[in-house]
């Protein structure tokens, strides 16, 4: 093996341990506690290692590195040399302290962006990839207000709720951290390339996977474990009964973190997972302030004032208030990202096949929570006349019910 600088020698030792097949993080932590740095571990006998972590772990440590190890090491050194990139090991002061409370913290982390965000108060905000428009709005609003209160928003960079959480987190001083299930040099899903660049520039992207690791289904539950480990609490916005978000909630609960869930309509498929964990002891929350209070995080006066102002705007019936709502939603809810989700949303399957394309779009945009004309206009980009005519069509078909206060909701059947 060629001669390396001291820092590269240390990295090589850590990388070799992190890539050793069959060496679990919990066993590695035992070995590090007993012998110190990785170089010392490699100098031990099989019997000494086995006495601490078992024979399987001992053989994994002493097995020769894979033939492509040199190439992997070169790639890690080159990646680390790029501006904004970091390789952080368990003995590094920059290692996220919250992860050290886990029984199996990863030995090596690849991080793009701000290391300071891994040492702050943090809350995870996760949910369905097939989020409803209402769920996307709720996730962005919760993330934005929590971030404005100085709390870092952690999520998994998936489509739907995760993406909305990151966008909201970027709007506050708390910022956002994306924990990903691929190598740190890759972006998955591809639709989030622009968002990932923004997070790397203003927040942080974190991965425990070696560079070049593609997206694999088995990686994401392990990614969820890191999300749970980094935070004081987890907020579930929307989740079906079988959802990765519920895995995150379970893992977080096992680590002693607080679990919160937003309730929804009993008719909404993506509310069922939230209702299930509420029944199991998660705290039902309706506002970001409730999350802050439960975790003992102070809410800045300015953030409270902004929240109250938003409530007043929502309650006002004047044209000025409607314009304010429209301006605010347009700023945080780009139609281009919502439209494909509307076309594939879960609600369209329940609409009668005879409905027009506009009616199907409006029914999807309505979701399972009441919405005003202003909100529906923004979600659908319909003109006033087309919106009114389509709502009337849905009312006559028994699919929509008008509520007091100029709101509309999906009709309940059965």
From TrEMBL:
Fetch the PANTHER family from UniProt: PROTEIN SMF (PTHR43022)
Name by which UniProt lists this protein: DNA-processing protein DprA
Q: Which gene encodes it?
A: dprA
- Domain of life of the organism in this record? Bacteria
Coiled-coil positions are: none
Identify the residues that the record assigns to the DprA winged helix domain, covering every copy.
Answer: 347-406
Q: InterPro entries per the record?
A: DprA (IPR003488), DprA_WH (IPR041614), DrpA_SLOG (IPR057666), WH-like_DNA-bd_sf (IPR036388)
Homology family? Belongs to the DprA/Smf family.
Which parts of the sequence belong to the Smf/DprA SLOG domain? 87-295
């Amino acid at each position: 093996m060629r001669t390396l600088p001291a820092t590269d020698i240390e990295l090589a030792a850590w990388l070799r341990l992190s890539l050793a097949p069959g060496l679990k993080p919990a066993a590695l932590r035992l070995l590090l506690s007993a012998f110190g740095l990785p170089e010392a571990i490699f100098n031990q006998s099989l019997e000494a290692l086995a006495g601490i972590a078992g024979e399987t772990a001992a053989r994994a440590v002493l097995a020769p590195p894979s033939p492509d190890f040199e190439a992997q090491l070169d790639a890690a050194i080159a990646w680390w040399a790029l501006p904004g990139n970091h390789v952080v090991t368990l003995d590094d002061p920059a290692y996220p302290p919250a992860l050290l409370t886990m029984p199996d913290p990863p030995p090596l982390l690849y991080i793009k962006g701000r290391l300071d965000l891994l040492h702050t108060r943090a809350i995870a905000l996760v949910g369905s990839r097939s989020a409803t428009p209402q769920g996307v709005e709720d996730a962005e609003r919760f993330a934005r207000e929590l971030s404005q209160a100085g709390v870092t928003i952690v999520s998994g960079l998936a489509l739907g709720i995760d993406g909305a959480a990151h966008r909201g987190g970027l709007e506050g001083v708390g910022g956002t951290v994306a924990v990903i299930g691929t190598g740190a040099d890759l972006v998955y899903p591809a639709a989030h390339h622009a968002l990932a660049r923004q997070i790397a520039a203003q927040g942080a992207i974190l991965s425990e996977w070696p560079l070049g690791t593609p997206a694999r289904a088995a990686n994401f539950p392990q990614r969820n474990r890191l999300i749970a480990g980094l935070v004081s609490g987890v907020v579930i916005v929307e989740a079906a009964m079988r959802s990765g978000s519920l895995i995150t909630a379970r893992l977080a609960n096992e680590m002693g973190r607080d679990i919160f869930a937003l309730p929804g309509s009993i008719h909404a498929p993506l509310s069922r997972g939230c209702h299930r964990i509420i029944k199991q002891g998660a705290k039902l929350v309706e506002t970001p302030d409730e999350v802050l209070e439960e975790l003992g995080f102070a809410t800045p006066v300015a953030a409270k004032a902004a929240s109250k102002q938003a409530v007043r705007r929502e309650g006002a019936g004047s044209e000025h208030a409607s314009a304010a709502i429209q301006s605010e939603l347009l700023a945080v809810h780009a139609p281009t990202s919502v439209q494909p989700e509307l076309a594939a949303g879960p609600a369209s399957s329940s609409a009668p096949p005879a409905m027009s394309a506009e009616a199907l779009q409006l029914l999807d945009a309505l979701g399972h929570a009441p919405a005003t004309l202003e909100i529906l206009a923004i979600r659908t980009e319909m003109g006033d006349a087309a919106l009114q005519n389509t709502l009337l069509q849905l009312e006559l078909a028994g699919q929509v019910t008008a509520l007091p206060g100029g709101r509309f909701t999906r009709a309940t059947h059965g």
